[in-house]
Amino acid sequence: MAVKKIGGQSLVFESRPCVASWAAVVGPMEGEGPLKSEYDMIMKDSLFDQDSWEKAEQKMMQYSIELALKKADRLPWEMDYLLGGDLLNQIITANFTARVFGAPFLGLYGACSTLAEGMILAGILIDGGYGDSVGAASCSHHDTAERQLRFPTEMGVQRSQTAQWTVTGSGAYLIRSGETGVRMTHATVGKVVDYGVKNASDMGSAMAPAALDTIRAHLEDTGRNAADYDYIITGDLGRRGFDSLKTLMAEEDLPANNLTDCGLHVYGGNQDTHSGASGCGCSAIVMGPRFFKEMRRWPRKKLLFAGTGALLSPLTSFQGESIPGIAHAIAFEWTEGENSK
Amino acid sequence: MTDQERELLRRHQDVLAREAGSRGRERARWAEKRKEIEQAQDALLRERGRLYLVRSSKTAAKVPLVKNMLWAFGVGGVICSVGQGFVFLFQRFGLALKDASAASTCVLIAIGAFLTGLGVYDDIGKRAGAGSIVPVTGFSNSISSAALEFKREGFLYGVGAKIFTVAGPVILYGVAVSIVVGLVDLLF
């Protein structure tokens, strides 16, 4: 019997696993953005003393996990599981990071929704009684992503106005059972949604329908209203995708005044990123440093995080396929001590 | 995970946290310490790999060297003989030796591409190895197989971008070396 499932695609975390700690390691450009004082480590350049960007990305993810664990006074091999992923082929960043840690590891790929996917699975593992502390991390690097997905980094191309800037950064979250703090109450596992957007420089528009689909399903399944949350936060729609989502929500009579997007919080207006931030690292370096941190001071102390992902590859683009999108949502709530269950 | 690895990782985490929590010269000092630990971790990984390889190589399957070499010699020889046959043929039709070898090369390239299209060349290559890679038919195979493979991604980003993925190094460095050789020839 699926006793912890409600509605079509949502699940309830009865034990309400807690986000015990987090850490973010970012690149120099992100380190000049509005959240600069919240990051744990800012790399002085995109190579981070390594001889390739891929190695730099791996170190970023490793460091973010180590630092998150340190804050909770945990050693890496004490994690019951590590869940992680990134954008690179064969998720090499996560795989090579797990090589260092000696913790049971499940590699994930959900494009930029990887953090949300990891957190949901962490919640399931803990709520199911399969572990007490699970690490969830996701990471991206602007230069490795450009090189794999688009053009050589030094090629003089004019970026489209709808294009987003892949974040150089990694965020790691330690999810643990039964504590005071930011706790996971519900999750909604997204469906792959494709509205036929083919422009790989406009992934925000491609992902917006998926975000709508998941948010709507979440509200229906849980019987909640959008206004029950202080914020509904999408992963990395960027300016363009965010505007599309607002339009879509207005059409469905869903209030969107508490809607925001992680991609709008990474860079300042003068950083010339066009449509904002994207990438696996985008929500990972924003959720903790920007939102979880101040949640306890909010009136309702609740947020809905819908991590969004564009499930394309350069190959499918060249073969003329459209871009399928996905969004996974997690409801978080700040609670104190005893009133957990 | 050995105790030694754990100890290094524990120290790494500790030093990293101190680095993240400090500024300026102190931060640089911790960064140095972190790099030292990382070097030790890398050395440990390499050493474990080396020891494992020593143990596992005892049971590794033997490469049939003699058989492979005979195949390469045979197939490579046949391809070259066919090429030589065409040289003789073109000479009989009145071409000078230089022109006859150029024409023969063209024919071999065409045959290589044709066999690739029929899906035969990879079967030959499986047995012959270098015997069918080194002659010009192998060069032809590397280009035509890439063209076939990437046609589905379109003629621009597929065929256009990927046709020289295998042959690219040969073309680039072949041209570069030919320039050097040409210069040497000109000077002496």
Helix and strand topology:
The complex is a heterodimer of chains A (341) and B (188).
Chain A: E1 5-6, E2 10-12, E3 18-26, E4 41-42, H1 53-71, E5 81-86, H2 92-101, E6 105-107, H3 114-127, E7 133-140, H4 142-149, E8 165-166, E9 169-176, E10 181-188, H5 203-222, E11 231-234, H6 238-251, E12 259-261, E13 277-278, H7 280-284, H8 287-291, E14 302-310, H9 314-318, E15 325-335
Parallel strand pairs in A: 3-4, 5-6, 5-7, 8-13, 11-12, 11-14
Antiparallel strand pairs in A: 1-2, 2-10, 3-9, 3-10, 7-9, 10-15, 14-15
Helix pairs in contact in A: 1-2, 5-6
Chain B: H1 3-20, H2 24-56, H3 65-92, H4 97-118, H5 121-128, H6 130-133, H7 136-149, H8 155-162, H9 168-187
Figure out the total of helices of chain A: 9
Distance separating the two termini of chain A: 21 Å
The computed structural class of chain A is alpha/beta
Radius of gyration of chain A: 18 Å
How helical, in percent, are the residues of chain A?
A: 25-40%
CATH superfamily of the largest domain in chain A: Stage V sporulation protein AD
> How many structural domains of chain A?
2
Could you spell the SSE succession of chain A in H and E letters?
EEEEHEHEHEHEEEHEHEEHHEHE
General shape of chain B:
elongated
Give the integer mean of the pLDDT values of chain B: 95
* Overall form of chain A: globular
Percentage of residues in strands of chain B: under 5%
- Please work out how many helical segments of chain B DSSP would assign: 9
The CATH architecture term of the largest domain in chain A is 3-Layer(aba) Sandwich
Protein chains sharing the most extensive interface: A-B, 18 and 19 residues
How many beta strands in the DSSP annotation of chain B? 0
